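Service request form, structural biology core

Requester: graduate student, group of Dr. S.
Request type: structure prediction, single chain
Budget code: on file
Notes: please return the result as structure tokens.

Sequence provided:
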Amino acid sequence: MNALLLTRLAVATLVFTALVCLLMLARRRLRAWTGAEAAYALWLAVPIGVALCCWPVHRVLVQVKLAPDAPSSGVPLTPVLPAQASLLPDAATLLLAVWLLGAVVSSLLLVWRQWRCQRALGPLCRAGADTWLSVGSSLGPMLVGLPRPRIVLPADFAERYTPEEQAAILAHERTHRRRGDLWWNLLAALLRCAFWFHPLAYRAQRRFLADQELACDSAVLRTRRHAPRTYAEALLKTQTGASLPLACTMQAGSALKERILNLQRGAAPRRMRLAALLMLASLGAAGSRIAWAASLEVVKVPVVDSVDADLKAVLDLSIDGAPARHEEHTVHGALHLDGLRDAGGRACEAELTPQLRRGDTVDLRMLMRCDGQIAGNPRLITRLGEPATIAIGVNERQPDGSFAMTHGFKLTIRFDKP
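Core staff response, request fulfilled:
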């Protein structure tokens, strides 16, 4: 299981790297072709690609008919050995633990930075229906606060900006709120925490925030209610203070020169924004199909001919080191066992299908499921009257030096003719 999670993380890292590099290299050209709003929307490809790497594994059972002496083609279960090496964590577990520790530390640092920056705003007083004034602080304007975003203005907002500039700034922050940009910032911050080890994670987040501001500028000017010159003068008067990790500030991310040059470009045609959405939908559909195919696991289940003659099965079953339970059954076809446990403590069940071969040879095939999923299908060859043992679990050394099973089950079975 840990190896599978580590593989998924490695694939997600490759996908994250490829998409981020592509967007960072092509962002300016994309903005020139499609406009700032469409170029910003294409950043959604990164979380879509990472999410598709987490597609759950789905198994398809394929029945195959084996030759009488052919080995089983399913996933074998390794019998327990009297050793303690299985109790030690493997490399995959250690790497996952390091990644999880780094993600938790990054998340805690994010929360601490957000709390520290919000404290720097000082006390807030309501200035309007949806605006708040930061008393004694020159930070802002900005949109801050989840799940209910609010617009925070600097203490000298009325003195610093003209009425036309104030209207442009409020339109900018309200556009952020209407587009849900704070939630997208939260998603970008979580991706950065998940890929804390990636050298491009921080740089990609800054480019994303820069494109977000450029897209917001274009959306405001597209309404034709504010002059580009007035908008540019408002940008020049805005101070670049400490930015919050989860906030939309008027002067965040993008260079001032890039912002002002973007104001001189006309709004991109509506068809370009629709083309960007169509591209994202196509990426999601194609990625879903690839992820579904990549997560497919084919499990070959052997088909055994029906047993014409009944067999008597004598079982001694011990679970988690408990005293063995003695049972006797007359088997015709398959024998079902439940109440089993594997080494991890999962609830398991098994179907035993014996088949009498040449002479007194018994071909025993076992299909085992744990927590509803196929865990393996081992095969044993034994003889009538001779016991065969299947042990799956963990052995621990006892004070007298012997080994005893403490987790899992041990099944001893003998077949006789009734």
